[in-house]
Each structure stands twice: as structure tokens, then as C-alpha cells.
Amino acid sequence: MKLNEQLKKMTKKQKMGVFTVSIAILLVGSFGYKVYADDQKAQEQARIARIEKEKLKNDTETAVNDLFEKAIIDNDDAKKIAIKNDLQSETVKNVKEKYFVTKTKDAWQININNMIDNAENQLQQIDIAKKAVEQVYKEKVLNTDQKKYDVAKKEVDKIKNAKAKKELSDKLAKVKSEIEKKNKEKEDKKKESGKVSQQTPEAKATTDNVAQTTDGAEQQVADVTGQQTDQAQQQTPQAGAGQETGYYEPQTPVTDNGTGSNQNVAPTAPANNGNAGGTQTPAPPAPEPTPEPIQPAGPPAGWINPPFPIGSGELMDWIADNGYGGYDSSDGYIRPY
């Protein structure tokens, strides 16, 4: 029977029931379809989110690994891996701004943060080492201070990148060469100074003279001064004792009076020198020539014969090596002080 004929035979009440059931079926179907569609949409969004997250992870690891000479993520030797050659601080800054996440508990993200910090710290160490090297070398050797060299060497040794480390180490090698050269020159001067009293008799005599002058130079000067004083006294005529005054007193002659005893005879006045046949007054004896003063046997007290020419650098080194601060010089002698 056709549907139309069946509907004609149905009562109005029956027709209302059929209509109600149809509406209900349509509503249930529509609701079920909506639930299904929403579920599909959610699944798609989740899938897209997973893809985007995976892509972000891959991009992050690629960017971080690219800061180093080889892949560092999940590498057991991560602490030993150096940054790539000529890495710029601007590159590290950009990676940090894009992929560094603060206040995270995700283990993977924490590892990423540590690797970015690693690259940043290595760049900072290179900069510290460069500044330390510039204290002793910049286009040429500027300073041969051993302490400054040691500080620079210590900072350069901390660098992991081989290229940066070699560039700075080559500069330090030139500084070290200059330090060793100056130390050798100083050592040679000390050895040369120590051989002065051992190589030749003349050098030995110079050293002995220094010691003798220190201990007995005062006595030498006193002896010489005494000798000169005695000679001066001998050369100076005493009053009434041989000094020429214009009158000569002859010695009283002693005669034998025939009794076996001597008797003094009164002196007679000298005859006029102008009378012929008269007794002439003998001329007084000529004074003896003044002898040349005896020169001191060696330098004055506190003065020595210099082991090196006065004013030379070798003499200044000798003065410093023997604990003196300087010296005075006179007549070829020096007096260290």
C-alpha cells in the first residue's frame, strides 16, 4: 500500500504521532552529527599543535647545535664541546631571545637553556682572556712582568675553542721569549760580577783592596799624615838652632894648659870680613830640600777602586747586586752608599 493511502486511512491522532516521531529522529540525528563534528575538529587541532611543537623542538635543537663545533644536545661530552669558530655574541643573543624559556620545569627545555648559557659563557671567557693578553701584548710586547703574564696564561688556558686559544697563545709566546731573554741577561751579569775576584790576579787584588780599605784605610791615612808631619818638623828651622840671623857664634875651643886638664878659652869676636887676612864667618848650612810627600798606599777611607769603568751600566749593576743604592766618584775611586 502506498504511503499516501496509508496516511489517508490514519486518524488525525495517529498522524500527529507519526509527525512527532519524525521530528525526534531528525533532532537526534542533528545533535549526534554536531558532537561528531566537534570531536573531529578537536582532534585536528591537537594534531596541528603536535606538529607545531615538534617543529619548534627541531628548530630549537638545530639553532642551539649550530652554536657549537658539533651537535651538543643529548651529547655525553657536552661540557667539553667548544663553540664554533668566530661565533658572534649577536648570534647567541638572538638564539637566547627566541628559544630560552625561563621558569620551566620541562627537562628538555632546561637542557636547552643550559646549552645556550654554555655558549654565552665561552664567549665571555674569550673576551676576558683577550683583555688579559692586552696587558702584556698588543701588536708588540708591552710588558714583561711575570705576574701579568701568568694571569693572561691562566685565562687563555680556560678557552675551549682551539682557534681563539691558539691566536692568544701565540702572542703570549712572544712575551715569554722576552721574559726569558731578560732573565738570562740579568743572570749573566750576576755571574760576570761574581767572577771579578776569581778570574785574574788583578781582579783578585781589587777585591782584596776593597776589604783592606774598609778595615784599615783609616790607619793608612793616619800613618801617612804622621810621616808628613815629622818631615815638615825636620825641615822647619827651630828658633836659635841653626836659623840664619846675620850673626854666627863659633864653638868655644878646648885647649890643654899643660896641667893635664882642659880649660875653656874665652871666645874672640869675629874679625871684619872686609879685612885681609882676617877670620871669615862661615856661611850657615843650606836647608835640605823638602822631600815629596808620600802618597797613600791605596784609596782614602771608605773609597775603593771600581771593578768596572765609572759611569758604565756594568758598574751600576755591580752596585745594585752588592746591596748599594749608588756611589760617589773622585780621582778614579768610588765610595758606594
Fold and architecture overview:
With about 325 residues, this protein is mainly alpha-helical. Among the domains are: about 60-70 and about 80-185, no CATH class; about 200-215 and about 300-335, no CATH class. The chain is built from 9 helices and 4 strands. β3 and β4 (about 335) form a beta hairpin. α3 (about 90-100) runs antiparallel to α4 (about 105-135), α4 (about 105-135) runs antiparallel to α5 and α5 (about 145-155) packs antiparallel against α6. The longest helix has about 55 residues, at about 10-65. The chain is rod-shaped. The model is unreliable at about 230-280 (pLDDT under 50).
Strands, helices and their partners?
Layout: H1 3-9, H2 12-65, H3 89-99, H4 107-133, H5 146-157, H6 162-194, H7 196-199, H8 201-235, E1 254-256, E2 262-264, H9 313-321, E3 327-330, E4 333-336
Antiparallel strand pairs: 1-2, 3-4
Helix pairs in contact: 3-4, 4-5, 4-6, 5-6
Mean pLDDT: 77
Structural class, please?
A: mainly alpha
One letter per element, helices H and strands E, the order comes to: HHHHHHHHEEHEE
DSSP strand tally: 4
β-sheet strand percentage: under 5%
Low-confidence stretches: 231-279
Summarize the structure.
By secondary structure, the chain is mainly α.
Distinctive features:
337 residues; mainly alpha; single chain; two-stranded antiparallel sheet; 57% helix
